[in-house]
Design goal:
By secondary structure, the protein is α/β, with parallel strands linked by helices. It is built from 6 helices and 5 strands. The chain has a single domain, classed as Alpha-Beta Barrel (Aconitase, domain 4). Helix 1 links the parallel strand 1 and strand 2. The termini are far apart. The mean pLDDT is 92.
Length: 124
């Protein structure tokens, strides 16, 4: 399970250090839905297995409130197929990930360290 953050523009600005992604991940953060991301912070989220998503329709940002529960069916399939990720929360909330195949694999592994460990074990 875990929790999500719903954020506005330039999420992670000034947070290029890894701690800005590591600490929230250790507290259970799994997804950030934002209007857009600071570039370096977005990659740090991926490295820690946190899924960065942007709103397809930024108006959805205003529909979400503290305590809302976001539900999604078959997240793995949506990520691997490149489709939008649609959450259900009092109606559909469409998001995009814009991730590369490698970034998706890193997120699905739970972060870069887990992904590297899995790759090393597979090569052995």
């Amino acid at each position: 399970m875990g929790h999500a953050i719903v954020a506005g523009r330039n999420y992670g600005q000034g947070s290029s250090r890894e701690h800005a992604a590591a600490a929230p991940r250790n507290l259970g953060l799994r997804v950030v839905l934002a209007k857009n991301f600071a570039r370096i912070h977005r990659q740090n989220l991926v490295n820690y297995g946190i899924l960065p998503l942007t709103f397809v329709d930024e108006a959805d940002y205003d529909r979400l409130h503290k305590g809302d529960v976001l539900r999604v069916d078959d997240l793995r399939r949506a990520l691997k197929s490149g489709d939008d990720v649609t959450f259900d929360c009092r109606g559909p909330v469409r998001t995009r990930h814009g991730l590369t195949a490698l970034q998706i694999d890193v997120i699905l592994a739970g972060g870069l360290i887990n992904w590297r460990r899995n790759e090393s074990q597979a090569a052995a």
